């Protein structure tokens, strides 16, 4: 393989293959795509190899079922696990996906003890906690992808509502990756114009609710799967900030140690992502309502993690 960083993506389903495609499109890294289903990662890797003959990327991709091929990865993105079906919440997946993430993390640590892990599997905050506990890695090197996806959905809906370029919209979405996520209206603007000056509050609340239901809306439409393009691309935005030491401020699931009054748990917060992983949690001023919403979201995540601990799953 060419002399580029190495990203291993565990899970060659739609999310994993979307992430792989994006990494190759950016010429960001050489990619190893791994799955337990023999033929699936190899076939997708071969297809993407042929695609690069058209796109001109010099990155390489290798499909495999053998974790040995992931050895010495710089970043490992974990997408393995069951996806939601109509009527299921992210939390319904917890038992099955905890076992999967535990097994995957153990193998990742065996072959790439110095990597940074990005978790994408749902329920996101709880699965990031599982990977952190099982890996034994420092908190900076285990991070979950959620806030970027949630913010992307919020920005997309705002762009559609206002008929403006989505690239001009800035926002943050904090909290757990679930029904009680916390989109921050006070930190949402279009080319610097506060969103409250552009959309009336009752309509803004409707858009926020659609953002919270964003994943479920796609599950309902697809009927046989869940979102994958936006989650896959969002994970690569994190990987790019890490590999290029960009120090981007991004909302990610990270381990809080007193920030925002939240201690010893994973939750979506603004962080600086650098070559070391989570370089810093950024503390911003929240309104009393936002603080309360964040506390509620954190308590729900804590319940899931306590359930995992008490059940003996890890």
Tell me what you see in this structure.
- It is globular and about 50 Å long.
- It has helices at 14-25, 40-55, 94-111, 124-135, 147-162, 201-212, 214-222, 229-243, 288-311, and strands at residues 6-10, 30-34, 61-64, 75-78, 116-119, 142-144, 169-170, 173-174, 182-183, 189-190, 193-194, 248-257, 263-274, 277-281.
- Strands 3-2-1-4-5-6 form a six-stranded parallel sheet, sandwiched between helices. A three-stranded antiparallel sheet has the order 7-10-11, with helices on one face. Strands 12-13-14 form a three-stranded antiparallel sheet.
- It has 314 residues and is an alpha/beta fold.
- It is built from nine helices and 14 strands.
């Amino acid at each position: 393989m060419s002399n580029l960083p190495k990203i291993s993506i565990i899970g060659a389903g739609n999310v994993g293959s979307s992430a792989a495609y994006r990494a190759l499109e950016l010429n960001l890294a050489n990619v190893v795509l791994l799955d337990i289903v023999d033929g699936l990662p190899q076939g997708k890797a071969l297809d993407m190899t042929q695609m690069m003959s058209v796109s001109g990327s010099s990155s390489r991709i290798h499909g495999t079922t053998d974790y040995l091929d992931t050895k010495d990865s710089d970043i490992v993105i974990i997408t393995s696990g069951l996806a939601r079906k109509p009527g299921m919440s992210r939390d319904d997946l917890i038992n099955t996906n905890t076992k999967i993430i535990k097994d995957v993390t153990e193998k990742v640590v065996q072959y790439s003890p110095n990597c940074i892990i990005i978790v994408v599997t749902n329920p996101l905050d709880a699965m990031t906690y599982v990977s952190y506990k099982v890996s034994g890695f420092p908190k900076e090197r285990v991070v979950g992808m959620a806030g970027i996806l949630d913010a992307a959905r919020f920005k997309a809906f705002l762009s559609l509502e206002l008929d403006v370029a989505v690239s001009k919209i800035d926002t943050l979405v904090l909290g757990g990756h679930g029904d009680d996520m916390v989109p921050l209206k006070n930190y949402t603007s279009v080319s610097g114009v506060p969103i409250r000056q552009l959309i009336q509050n009752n309509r803004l609340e409707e858009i926020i609710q659609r953002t919270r239901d964003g994943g479920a809306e796609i599950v309902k439409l697809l009927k046989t799967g869940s979102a994958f393009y936006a989650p896959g691309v969002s994970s690569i935005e994190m990987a790019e900030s890490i590999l290029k030491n960009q120090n981007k401020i991004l909302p990610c699931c990270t381990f809080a140690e007193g920030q925002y009054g939240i201690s010893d748990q994973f939750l979506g917060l603004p962080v600086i992502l650098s070559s070391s992983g989570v370089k810093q949690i950024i503390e911003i001023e929240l309104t009393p309502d936002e603080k309360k919403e964040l506390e509620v979201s954190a308590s729900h995540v804590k319940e899931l993690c306590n359930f995992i601990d008490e059940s003996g799953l890890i």
